[in-house]
Design a protein that fits this description.
alpha+beta; Rossmann fold; Dna Ligase, domain 1; D-amino Acid Aminotransferase, Chain A, domain 1; 3 domains; 14 helices; 17 strands; globular
Length: about 400
């Protein structure tokens, strides 16, 4: 990224932060109502955790039988329905969101009419990869070298500048590997460009230098409305077909790298003045360097292990942060392997986790099953997860291997 261009993007993000302005912190005690923009599984688990603390919840989601709506009252309407957003504001003492692709205009409206400690500026930054990378760099944290791309000619020039392999991504949207393509040879440039930008109107694209990483880790950091910051132990993440398959905690990297990863995540969440949770995904290279890959301003799939393995879960921590309570202890109580349950695994995973299992008994593993309540089970769709509490993460990995469910 050319320095002047990066500075301009950072300045734009800062101007947006100043324009939206942070709302003065309020302390909301149990009994208050938390409005959730989004009714998926993250909202569901947040509501279950917060309800145990004594908070009430109401969600806004377009699906009639959304996972969060099964456990809490729901306003059924489109995310960009401003009347529905105002109704959510009327019924809530504080509003949060459970996914980052929220209409930023609706988030700004809610911030005007209700208490939204996360604000809309964080969404503005994290919804766009160029703004996000500039904000990470502004916090003094390294990212992979990158270039802005708007045409095939610019892609060819950027690839020549950065060198191959590289990864081409859309600047907005995309998850679980969607909206991106890995380019390893010059002859793949045109096809990758057509894949990521298939229409006549080319969206903003980002070309990133491919980092030869040893593993990927993530840290869930939390910052309260009054500025208290804490982070959870790093998770080592393994993906299959661009979908998170396993999170292993403790991560199988030296303690010094784990410590630095937490420091970087806390530096980012503080620098961006985020409120609530911020998931920070990082690459670890062979020589121990850390490069931040992506951010998510919400609870994160790689933090689900905290529900059973930590003193405080990520969902309780998020509620504490947005309600300005003291943040909870993030200590890891037991080694854990979190394994996602996709549609094709659902029946077998329920059977393996809920019925007598000799292999789990032999290995001393306690499987904790969490099912999300989605109405339709599809191949590749996240339907739940299992936290495998174990004496050693190797035992949890052996259980996953022995069940044979995740080979399908």
């Amino acid at each position: 990224m050319v320095k002047a261009e990066g500075e301009a993007i950072a300045a734009g993000a800062e101007a947006q932060r100043e324009e939206t302005g942070a709302q003065p912190p309020r302390t909301l005690l149990p009994g208050a109502t938390i409005g959730v923009l989004g009714g998926g599984q993250l909202g569901r688990m947040m509501a279950l955790s917060g309800s145990a603390m004594g908070y009430r919840f109401v969600a806004l989601d377009p699906a009639k039988d959304a996972p969060c709506g099964q456990v809490t009252p729901q306003i059924t309407a489109a995310y960009n329905d401003r009347d529905a957003a105002r109704e959510l504001a009327r019924r809530s003492d504080v509003i949060t969101y459970e996914f980052e692709n929220v209409d930023a205009g609706v988030a700004a409206l809610l911030a005007e009419e209700s208490y939204v400690p996360q604000g809309s500026a964080l969404l503005y930054t994290t919804q766009h990869r160029l703004r996000e990378k500039a904000a990470i760099e502004a916090a003094g944290v390294p990212v992979a070298p990158y270039r802005k791309v708007g045409s095939l000619a610019e892609l060819e020039a950027a690839a020549a500048d950065l060198g191959l392999p590289c990864v081409l991504k859309t600047a907005t949207g995309g998850y679980d590997g969607k909206g991106q393509a890995v380019i390893r040879r010059p002859e793949e440039l045109a096809a990758a460009f057509r894949q990521v930008a298939p229409g006549a109107q080319v969206p903003e694209l980002v070309l990133e230098k491919f980092i030869a990483f040893q593993c990927e880790i993530s840290v869930i950091a939390a910052r309260s409305a009054s500025g208290e910051v804490k982070s959870f132990p790093p998770a080592e993440n393994i993906h299959v077909d661009n979908i998170l398959h396993l999170s292993i905690v403790p991560a199988r990297v030296p303690e010094e790298i784990q410590r630095r990863a937490c420091e970087l995540a806390e530096r980012i969440v503080s620098g961006m003045k985020a409120v609530g949770l911020l998931a920070v995904e990082m690459f670890v290279t062979e020589d121990g360097e850390l490069f931040v890959n992506e951010l998510a301003p919400r609870p994160h799939n790689s933090g689900h292990y905290t529900m059973d393995a930590c003193v405080t879960s990520q969902f309780e921590q998020h509620v504490r942060a947005i309600c300005n309570l003291p943040l909870g202890d993030t200590k890891l109580l037991t080694p854990v392997v979190m394994v996602n349950v996709l549609g094709q695994h659902l029946d077998g995973a329920v059977q393996a986790a809920c019925c007598a299992n000799e292999e789990a008994t032999r290995l001393g593993i306690s499987p904790k099953l969490h099912i999300y309540g989605k109405t339709e089970s599809k191949t590749g769709r996240k339907m739940g997860h299992i936290n495998l509490l174990c004496k050693d993460t190797g035992d949890g990995l052996s259980w996953v291997e022995q069940t044979n469910l995740w080979r399908n």
